[in-house]
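I hope you will forgive my troubling you with a question about protein structure. Here, with my thanks, is the record as I have it:
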Amino acid sequence: MANAGPDQVVDAGTDSYGAVTLDASATVDPDGDELSYWWMIDDGLLAQGVQSTVQLSPDSYPVTLVVRDPADHVSTDEVLVVVTGNPTFIRADSNTDGTVDISDAINTLGFLFTSAGEVTCQDAADANDSGDVDISDAIFTLGFLFFGSPPTLPQPHPNRGPDPTLDAVGCDSYKP
């Protein structure tokens, strides 16, 4: 009998992610067999093991625990995880490495045109704070870095913080 534990509400930390501990220790097998544990989210593997801690951005996540014994008997249970809080980021830090440099402009261009870039926080990639991510964001970042135009980036910059403007982009991914 799979037991994913009670639903959870977790606050996002200063890195915009909430540390969620998935705990299936209340799962029982009538035969006492050794069990395999998989934690699934959106039809993908989130974690493995009886207990696992994952980082999730603010949102609601139905997480399914799948437990299997050596005889291929399967049991499932679901836990709802809600991560609250306002994501924080650094404006123009497209690759979210904590600094704004040429790699951010390259990452944004890769994200837009070649699928080579990975943007996990579109608010961070929205360098000019226009409310969307497009080529002007890479150009804006390059202008800031190499020509001093603009002399400063929109907030939050240079330090991590929440988005002061209401727009359609956000930070909406998870870090397994």
Notes: The helical segments are 102-113, 122-125, 135-147.
